[in-house]
Specification:
Layout: E1 2-8, E2 11-18, E3 35-38, E4 52-56
Antiparallel strand pairs: 1-2, 3-4
Length: about 70
């Protein structure tokens, strides 16, 4: 499993834990890596209901992953 977080008010906050897909290399998921998470809905906390990692986003910076209206 891997912990996922978002930036909230300038601070990185853990919002949920997801399993690592079998086809994904765990080494790609180092601290600071950005991933795209898919699921059924986004809760107010930023967690994704029934979320799963879809892909690693090498085109995004961790600091770009904001919560809600901070984006």
């Amino acid at each position: 499993n891997v912990n996922l977080g978002l930036w909230k008010k300038g601070k990185l906050v853990k919002v949920q834990t997801c399993g690592i897909p079998k086809e994904m290399d765990a080494a790609m998921l180092s601290v600071g890596a950005v991933v795209e998470v898919l699921g059924f809905e986004i809760w107010p906390s930023g967690a994704v209901r029934h979320g799963h990692i879809a892909r690693v986003r090498t085109d995004k910076l961790a600091e770009d992953c904001m919560h809600g209206t901070e984006a």
